[in-house]
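Quick illustration for those who missed Monday's session on complexes.
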Amino acid sequence: MLESLSASLQKVIKKVRGHGRMSEENIAEAVRDVRMALLEADVSFEVVKDFVASLRERCLGQEVTQSIAPGQQFVKCVHEEMVALLGEKNQAVNLNGHPASVLLLGLHGSGKTTSCAKLALHWKGKGKRVVMVAADIRRPAAVEQLAVLGEQIEVEVIRPTAGEVVPALGARGLDEASRSGADVVLFDTGGRFQVDEDLVQELEALRDAVNPRNTILVVDSALGQESVNVARTFHERIGLTGLVLTKLDGDARGGAALSIRRVAGCPVLFSGVGEKLEDLEPFYPDRLASRILGMGDVVSLVEKVQEVVDEDQAQRMEQTLRKKRLNLEDFLEQLRQIRKMGSMDSIMKMLPISADLKASAGTGPDAAAQMDSFAVKAEAIILSMTPTERRRPALLNGSRRKRIAGGSGTTPSDVNELMRRFQQAQKMAKKMGKMQKAMQKGLNIMR
Ligand SMILES: Nc1nc2c(ncn2[C@@H]2O[C@H](COP(=O)(O)OP(=O)(O)O)[C@@H](O)[C@H]2O)c(=O)[nH]1
Ligand SMILES: [Mg+2]
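Prediction with magnesium ion bound:
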């Protein structure tokens, strides 16, 4: 997620860490570096200008205390500034009304149809009765695409009849949804590769026919400065109440993600983080800022855990993750829980570990599959150790490793691989421990 921006900002922070204290001079330098990083990520020029000015002010306004390292102080400032840019907190969609109507707009390929189904699934999961209207009528394939998705998630799709124009379809869709007692009605609309007058007029007519409570622009986060103009036009002509930022899972530079809220003047409500219909997350500015700054996202991680394991286990997991001295019994427990959660890839992204560590641990779908087969072996290996060995991994010398390999039907190099990964997990746990300490000091850098 926004990896290159994240890497370059973390580099800046690392540099600041090297300073003994924050002076006006090194603040100026660090702020300049942040400016470069943002421009490289194709964040809108105006947004960068404002961001940098208020970051400088925030940094200079910091009390210089001996007890807080300059790196931490700087991270805290950047984090706060980023949260201010992304929008203070998560905003919910207005679901009042019978039904509540949601119009999805955006350029061709931005992810409207996919997001429409993702949102339908999301609200269905919250016990709402949802209906979708296929109002992208120019391309027959678009109607079909939504119909297929609707079938997958068992949500009714209202299709255009022969010769029906968009506003008429909109009014009929709203009416039918209302009569069938739907709580939410979503309208998937047509897009273009660029905003053109023809499209805008069609959408205006649809808006006037439906009078939607929510008008949401779907924005591909791979768009940089371009997204600025798109958002502006849609906002001026149609009026926007919120945004969905898609493809945040990709290698987008981050320009749109950081600029869009300020430019569109309305909040990001959800983010799309994958092609699957479950890959939609309510947008939490502070969490994204934490992830970008490599502070991890313990809250999202714990939430994800809670979805699949019970509360008790989730709490234990959080404790183990934050434990400073991890032993192999903890590691075994972690592996078992991680396997239950499914994708190793998505979990890795939420952890506050450095890009190098992530690279050496490997992420991506292949790594996730490898992780699964590794976990099976790892379990056998750890179970072949004596309880003392599990608690004191330092005992595991060559001859013990050989014995354990024999006992678990693995090879000594498998055992070594396990120990290598275990050491990484230990490192990570130590980092999280440190972070927790920083938070306890009252440095609420991670919420
Ligand atoms: N990786 C990823 N792909 C997405 C996401 N949202 C949409 N897509 C893909 O983007 C492409 C275009 O999406 P679609 O919903 O058809 O866009 P539309 O033209 O705006 O309706 C499809 O291949 C989707 O699978 C996302 O959050 N992450
Ligand atoms: Mg579409």
